[in-house]
Model the fold of this input.
Amino acid sequence: MAEEDDKTGIRLLQSLKGKICEAKHLLAYTGTTRTRDSFCTVNLDQEEVYRTKVVEKSLSPFYGEDYYFEIPRHFQCLAFYIYDKGVFQSIPIASAIRFIPELLLDRQ
Done:
């Protein structure tokens, strides 16, 4: 979040750094192809700010990716989603993990 002190004109920026490790035991497809091609996104409010690579044919995909981004404004919710990469569209396959800003403050 960017905040500017009116008296000094100093602008404070906040950033978020983390690692997306893995998902475990995703639900299998019914039929012959039981595995999934999945990826994970990081969303700030409704805007996607990071996306992992697609991990193919796995029900317990390992992403192992670091992410870093600046938080330019106040936000309501930071969320992580796991999607199945379909032929025509990406479909969410797991519940979102959501954080509110108060849980992230004073964490270093």
Observations:
- Residues 2 and 30 are 47 Å apart (CA to CA).
- The longest strand covers residues 62-71.
- The helical segments are 101-104.
